């Protein structure tokens, strides 16, 4: 995702990938509303939709099933179930199509930086020189360790086995047993025909403690033992596609930037997978960082723009860590947590509570501090703007190029001096009760109004000095 964003702005980009071939593991199984919007903003959604399935169902907060809220502030009020492997493939094709270079089988083992750039040392002895480097290398990030960036938080206290495999037992028997076990153990499940693979089941079962070496995949026998312990049967599991384990550790990098090196995705934060937020959080990190890093490389970034990546995204990740901690507590089979779960289940019958939690999980409730002041300014400031229909087309059709956008229904405003960075669309929407809005390349509103002088005061803050 990040490589695609950088290439949209003409930045030469190389992706170093340790794996020789794409992984077959597909842990994440869906895109939430904000990530779907991101794909739509870049003209990618039509590639995703035919390969996924849309769902508008509750149950994303700690598995508490409630109706999907009406009239969410998005044109994409659904979850797109799509395998992570497909998402990775489509984004790789997008980045390569824009000119990014992906080098597989290249493992980073060292890095140094100075005032001009970063030198990356690879396992094969190769050295690469770049102006910036971003570690998108997961929870056990080598980049983060080489930087010496702290990763405080809590270690895993429970562990869960996860894998795709075939099952010999009759489907009706499986469904009945799973329903009975889940009355007390919500971290248990057997999902049939996962990702459209007929006969392949995704098995989720609590592990027997926390493994000393969590980099080692569990065995099929370990799955069998745990299934028998919780369900009294192993369902005749066989022919595994892949097996893994995950814990409930929560950690957040102390800083997302150290000089010319930055962190994104799981390299910057890890948390339990409750609510399906991990992949989405990483995509949204990249979407926030891409245009800012490109602006720095291309020489027009105002002071502090690149640092705003940490300022904006660090609190978002902290909030995800908090809500996943809460969800894990609500999955605990002990009497205390079950009592809290029953109370929250009642509270979620209130439309406001249900909506609030879904907006949190899907990230459409995120609002950045864009300098709106104590009074908060216009209600749109800091928020991403949903896709709204215009008189000619729709908003997101105008954002595919990854530039800023002035949506102007007055026709009297101007972005002269910034037209190399901002598109000026003179149009309006019946769904938008404001004369004009200025959007950053990631779709968040940084100005709303109709006064040209006021607009001129905002443009340099986000888009640098006017061109000569």
Automatic annotation (TrEMBL):
Gene3D superfamilies per record: 3.30.70.2450, 3.40.30.120, FAD/NAD(P)-binding domain
Source organism: Streptomyces lavendofoliae
Cofactor(s) annotated in UniProt: FAD
GO molecular function: FAD binding; oxidoreductase activity, acting on paired donors, with incorporation or reduction of molecular oxygen, NAD(P)H as one donor, and incorporation of one atom of oxygen
Annotated SUPFAM superfamilies: FAD/NAD(P)-binding domain
NCBIfam families for the chain: rif_monoox
Keywords for this protein: FAD, Flavoprotein
Annotated ranges, domain FAD-binding: 1-324
Entry keyword annotation includes Flavoprotein: yes
InterPro entries linked to this entry: FAD-bd (IPR002938), FAD/NAD-bd_sf (IPR036188), RIFMO-like (IPR050641)
Pfam family, one: FAD_binding_3
Name of this protein: FAD-dependent oxidoreductase
